[in-house]
Amino acid sequence: MICNRKTKYVQNYSELNDNELYYPFHLPDKRFYMNISDPSKLKRASDPWKEKELENVKTYADYFENKVPGVRIRRDSFLATMKGIKKARINYLKETSIIAKDQSSEPAENLVYYPIELLHYAPLNQPDWELIYKLPSILVRISQLYRIERLRKLFAEKIQCYSVRFIC
């Protein structure tokens, strides 16, 4: 199932899900993004492009068609509001998540917009990616606990402990 997801692309805006991860296929680095489903942050492909003013780029659709040749962007569709995910600091004393729990307070400068035509599904969804990311440190901790237990047993065998009995 994971291998099949790698080549699957998003076909419609309604397929976007907050539990999935996506990546734009035109970028050389496969950075994963999560969908932000906040209606106040929606943009259409026909909205004006506000970054560097290029002569033939007036809308988001124009920009992406200029950047990725051979792709036709539907002007009437919404752009996917995305936020890049980053690796979390792992602290097992406190429950943390790699995905921000309160997405409404995110500043707008961290958001990126991609047309649906450029998005592919990432090989894993968000919960699976989080588990796989944590797996190496969990295995290290298990091996540490195993070595500590072996050391404790070694001390218990080599050191002769005598219990004190109270006689009344």
What does this structure look like?
The chain is α+β, with helices and mostly antiparallel strands and 168 residues long. It has one domain. It has helices at residues 2-5, 60-67, 126-158; strands spanning 21-24, 33-35, 80-84, 111-114, 119-121. Strands 4-3-2-1-5 form a five-stranded antiparallel β-sheet, with no helix packed on it. The termini are far apart. Residues 100-108 have low confidence and may be disordered.
Which descriptor suits the 3D outline? elongated
The description of the largest β-sheet is: 5 strands, antiparallel
- C-alpha-based Rg, rounded: 25 Å
Helix and strand element order? HEEHEEEH
Q: Structural class of the helices, strands and pairings?
A: alpha+beta
Strand arrangement, largest sheet?
4-3-2-1-5
Q: Note the total helix count.
A: 3
Q: How much strand content do the residues show? A: 5-15%
Distance between the termini: 71 Å
Look at the structure and give the mean pLDDT: 78
Low-confidence stretches: 100-108
For the record, the count of structural domains works out to 1
